[in-house]
Amino acid sequence: xxxxxxxxxxxxxxxxxxxxxxxxxxxxxxxxxxxxxxxxxxxxxxxxxxxxxxxxxxxxxxxxxxxxxxxxxxxxxxxxxxxxxxxxxxxxxxxxxxxxxxxxxxxxxxxxxxxxxxxxxxxxxxxxxxxxxxxxxxxxxxxxxxxxxxxxxxxxxxxxxxxxxxxxxxxxxxxxxxxxxxxxxxxxxxxxxxxxxxxxxxxxxxxxxxxxxxxxxxxxxxxxxxxxxxxxxxxxxxxxxxxxxxxxxxxxxxxxxxxxxxxxxxxxxxxxxxxxxxxxxxxxxxxxxxxxxxxxxxxxxxxxxxxxxxxxxxxxxxxxxxxxxxxxxxxxxxxxxxxxxxxxxxxxxxxxxxxxxxxxx
Length: 361
Hints:
alpha/beta, Rossmann fold
């Protein structure tokens, strides 16, 4: 007869596998969603962007450059390529490809911006105000992934600076300028880029009992902490994006704010993790051609008002991570909004126009 201890052990193991493991994976590794994305083959759903304006940050990146081509081949009127690197070569390539295909060539603007500084972000707003009549689609695709810690000139860890703070600041500075072209039947849409990388970073995103939450996220060290910085920065950005969407709704503004998850791909951004076992295994689990991830981003930035506040993923919407849905996550979201506002108003006072627009005085 089996020992009662053995039976108890077997029972505990069955309970763990049946209930505990799925809950653990849902918290830190959304494998079902990643596996679905691996085989997903989305394409842009909007047939024509004639007469509209689209702005892409990170336009030289694997996703951004492909998204730019998708907008261009679908008759976009004005295409803005913004990146820390000069996008002139990309502009020439797109123009050449369109001419060879016998397609109309849009007006393509190249803006070189430094997202390591708030002044670089302010340049985006200044150029948009001066050079654009309408702004239908904003895709904030700029991002960095680094396993060695550096600080920006603003004093923030550089992943937090670029992926979160600078991206959030650009969104607020552009918010008063979002305006649909006459040919656009939908409200203007601004899309953030999110990532499954925030799931494994979740255990490191607790709010401190005292002191600044953002500074805690920024004051990390090399090693495991720095390895989580990309996910942590994307977690902060998703908190911000959800709060911004809620405040746009409360203010009654006819603007669509959402996030889009392109899935994983091997790109110049992620290649830094190829030599590391865990990043390599995680990326290989769901990696697909960047073309499909770019299509997700284009569709996200083209979403109708029903996509407001949602996370766009292939042709579906995804749930927010479990830790963000809890009361503690809701409190963290409010704290992120508060501390971010304090930083922006101190260093980029123009942002007050966006807070006034939201009725957040």
